[in-house]
Every structure is written in C-alpha cells, then in structure tokens.
Amino acid sequence: MRQLFKDVSRLKDVICEENRPLAPMTTMKVGGDARLFVRPLSLSGLEGLLALLHGVQVPYRVLGNGSNLIVDDGGVDLVISLCSLRDMQLEQQGSLYVEAGCTLSSILGFCIENGLEGLEPLTGIPGSLGGALFMNAGANGVSLGDFVDEICVTTGQGSTWLKVSHDFFSYRSSNTPEGALISAARLKVNVDSHDEWTTGVPSDGSCLKRATPRKVHERIKRIMRKRLSSQPLGRPSAGCVFKNPSVDCLAWRLIVECGLQGFKMNRAQVSPKHANFIVNLGDAKASDVIGLIDFVKERVWEQTGVMLKEEVVIWENETEH
Is 36 exposed, middle or buried (0-12, 13-18, 19+ CB in 10 A)? Predict the structure, then answer.
C-alpha cells in the first residue's frame, strides 16, 4: 500500500491520504479507517486514478456523502471519495448537468434558485448524486432515476455517456455497468419555449419543470416538516435499513409486528420513531449496528417467513476474509 500511496500521490488533480477515519464521513458515525483515502478533484483526475488502479488491479470502495453506508470497525483498504466532483449547471439543450459529488440537498437548493420543480419528494435524503443513482434513491413514491436522461460512467479506459433506457433503474437499484463509476448525470428539464411558469407538480415524475422559486421552496419545507415528524433525523443513522419486500409489505411494519421497535443491541437501537431506522445512541460500533441488522432479519424471518434485504451498504474489512 505504501508504493501505491506514492504512485497515486504523483497523479494530477488527485489528493491521497493515509489512515483517514471514515466514521466522521458517514451519517451513521461508525467504522474504522481507510488505509488509503483518495479524492479526485476533477473528472480527468478520476480518469487518471482509475487508469492507474486498473493497471495494478487494486480493489477500491467509492464514497459519496456517506449515507446509506455502514463501515466495518476494521476499516477498509482503499476508498475513492467523489465529494469534490460538484459541478452543476443548466444546459441549453434542456437538461441539468450534475456531477456525482453533488448532494441531493444542494441539487434541491439549485432547483429553488432556478425555479425547477419535481425533485421535492426527495427532500431530506442525505446522499450525493452518484450513490443516489447507483441505488436509485427515492421517497414519497418518486425515485431519482425517473428524472435521468443520461449518465456518465467512468472506468480505467475513460468516461462515456450512456442514454438511460426504461429498464436501467428499478426499485432501489440500477444496472450500472460492472467496474464503472457514475461520475455525472443529465436530468431531464422541460423548459417551455416561451419560458412560462407551470402551475402544477409534474404528475408523471419524468422531468423537471418550471415553477416559481417560492413554490418549490414552500413544497420542500412542507415535505421536510413531515420527515422531521416521522423519522429520527436527530440521531446518527444510515436512513432506511431494509428494502420494502413489496408495495403492500412494508419493512417497518414487519419489524413493529415482531415487537422489535425500540430494541437495543449495546449502543445501536431500532428507532422508536421509525422501525426501519437503526440509530446510533452514541459511541456505537459498527459491530453493534451490523449485529442488530442480523438479529432483526432473523426474528422477522422466524415470525413472518419474510426475509428482509438490506437497503444499506455494508463495507466489510477485506483483510478478515
């Protein structure tokens, strides 16, 4: 790893650190260090980095805003952070160009400033664009993938724009090519030829549309108030832990029916406010959180016959396997 550190440090537009703590960089606030933590400052820097890593065949993990993620207490070897890829601009051809490191909250702020409606249902999701697209984040019946026209994928061979087909995104997942990183995307924008304001929220959820900044802001505030009243946003968490088995079979309801709401494992707890959240009560370890996830899955399976699947991503320590 020492030689790799030296090689990566020579790359243009790339910052490399050793033994970077990851817990402060995740919303769950648990986990160990990255033995190498690499931050490309531009898309060309990312391309150069992936070309180098492809040549030495070193596995890596990709970090966005650290939501929806639990890092093993033992840490991981190599992490690429996309947090510096944050360019965002309206393009003349009727699309919103967004790089992978932009947080969903910053995208919503841009939509307020520029009078674009449609993404408000995603208010309160703490992720960044790259991770949110990779797992097709969504809320309130709307998914981010609904709005995507093209994605830019980057590998050791460079970057390529891909037109998104109707089956590219599915519930909490995407068909991102194996070995590729989502480095940017274009979101569809329907701009009236006369640049007039529309009056309603898009019913098809397929594109951003013009609206007054005040209207967009008011709707975001209303949705955020609802989230604050129903989700434990005051404590560290990774968001919803489990996928809903189906539209009519909700993970939180199964957990409640099994008597697990409020259940604790050391300093990790199934939230009393929303049973599909696990919260860090303070100084929790990743082993507490992962152990509680496994316990909930086992209990729900035993009592209901439904095997819950994680929505969160768990980074295991490679050196232990």
Answer: buried
Domain 88-230 has CATH 3.30.465.10: yes
Q: How far apart are CA 169 and CA 231, in angstroms?
A: 26
Domain 2-81 has CATH 3.30.43.10: yes
Catalytic residue among 172, 219, 227, 253: 172
Active-site residue (options: 99, 117, 120, 311): 311
| The one catalytic residue among 83, 111, 240, 258 | 240
Q: What is the C-alpha end-to-end distance of the chain, expressed in Å?
A: 18
pTM for the full model? 0.90
- Active site includes 120? no
pLDDT in tens, 178-189: 889 999 999 999
Amino acid at 99: E
Q: Are 312 and 296 in contact (CB under 8 A)?
A: no
